[in-house]
Amino acid sequence: MTDIIQTIRTIVLDAVNAQKLTTIVYGTVISTSPLKIQVDQKLVLEQEHLKLTRAVRDYEVEMTVDHVTESRAGGSGDAAYASHDHEYKGRKKFLVHNGLVVGDRVTMLRAQGGQQYLILDKEVV
């Protein structure tokens, strides 16, 4: 009876593994234009198989600021160039530089079936 149970377990595990359920995959960026990620010696993922999250892209964000610039003096000695500062207030756009570069190590989620990969984040060194 134990052999039958073990055989059934093996068959079930093989069937589940064959489905290529979602799994974590690691890779290295080898090209950014077009985007290519090397997973192992044999597998290089091409741009059409990759989806990017905001964590690995350059993107703009709006932020509210309310501070004063640092005091700076001009150069001619004229009173108009005396040391001064300015208010810096309001809603401002900023560019966040998160884009991938060659050599970045990335963590990806492989979708069921193994055809699409979602790049979740890059390794911090």
Describe the structure.
It holds the Pfam family DUF2577. It comes from Metasolibacillus meyeri. The chain is mostly beta strands and 125 residues long. It has one domain. It has one helix spanning 2-18, and strands at residues 23-32, 35-38, 44-46, 50-52, 59-68, 87-96, 105-110, 117-122. The protein has a six-stranded mixed sheet, with no helix packed on it. Strands 5-6 form a two-stranded antiparallel ribbon.
Features:
single chain, 125 residues, mainly beta, six-stranded mixed beta sheet, two-stranded antiparallel ribbon, 1 helix, elongated
Question: In angstroms, what is the radius of gyration?
Answer: 26 Å
Q: Major beta sheet, specifics?
A: 6 strands, mixed
User: Could you spell the SSE succession in H and E letters?
Assistant: HEEEEEEEE
What's the helical proportion of residues?
A: 10-25%
Find the count of extended strands (DSSP E, 2+ residues): 8
Q: Structural class, judged by helices and strands?
A: mainly beta
**Percentage beta strand:** 35-45%
* Spatial strand sequence of the major β-sheet: 3-2-1-7-8-4
Number of domains: 1
Catalogue the unreliable spans: none
End-to-end separation = 52 Å
The shape is: elongated
The pLDDT mean sits at 86
Number of helices: 1
